[in-house]
């Protein structure tokens, strides 16, 4: 069901996709859909959760022996690697579902907060980060980082993105107590 919904949301759009379309594509009864998902919105959240759990799993497995800074770089870069979920979110905003896009962003933060918390604790332990109040820092982290993500989603000009990128890096390095010049963020990141 999740794969069917994902494909429809990506190709047809969230607004135009009906639950009946998902059930037909998944070849299931409508009652089966409602057994697992009470609404179309709930399956959208499941799609995002599935993707974010893949990112979290990669950090836990592929990056388990890496430094906190490597893990943080990977997490941030994943937001800039093109993915179909980006199209779905951008179309939500275009189709006047900005509130739903905002809910997805907050849900993403909630899902990734445990991973980010572990990364920051590791950074403090490794002495590559200097953080006293980790939970509060996490909140600021997402707010600062979201400015740069919005710049990408809104397809702002390169010069505007570069200014925001520079400011974001400076703020995040200061927030996380990281040495200046260590964080690298670009519009077109490749996986580390």
From TrEMBL:
One Pfam family in the UniProt entry: TetR_N
SUPFAM superfamilies reported for this sequence: Homeodomain-like
Domain of life: Bacteria
Keyword DNA-binding listed: yes
Gene3D superfamilies: Tetracycline Repressor, domain 2 (1.10.357.10)
Keywords: DNA-binding
Transmembrane segments: none
Start and end residues of each HTH tetR-type domain: 1-55
Residue ranges the UniProt entry marks as DNA-binding: 18-37
Protein name: AcrR family transcriptional regulator
């Amino acid at each position: 069901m999740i794969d069917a919904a994902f494909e429809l949301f990506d190709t047809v759009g969230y607004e135009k996709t009906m639950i009946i379309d998902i059930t037909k594509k998944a070849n299931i009864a409508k009652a089966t859909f409602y057994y697992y998902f009470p609404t179309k919105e709930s399956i959208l959240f499941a799609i995002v959760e599935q993707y974010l759990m893949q990112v979290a799993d990669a950090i836990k497995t592929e990056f388990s022996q890496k430094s906190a800074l490597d893990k943080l770089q990977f997490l941030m870069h994943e937001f800039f690697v093109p993915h179909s979920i980006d199209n779905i979110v951008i179309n939500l905003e275009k189709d006047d579902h900005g509130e739903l896009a905002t809910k997805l962003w907050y849900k993403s933060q909630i899902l990734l907060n445990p991973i980010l918390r572990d990364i920051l604790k590791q950074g403090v332990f490794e002495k590559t980060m200097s953080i006293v109040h980790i939970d509060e820092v996490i909140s600021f982290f997402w707010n600062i980082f979201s400015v740069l993500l919005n710049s990408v989603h809104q397809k702002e000009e390169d010069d505007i993105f570069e200014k925001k990128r520079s400011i974001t890096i400076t703020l995040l390095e200061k927030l996380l107590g990281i040495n200046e010049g260590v964080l690298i963020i670009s519009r077109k990141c490749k996986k580390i």
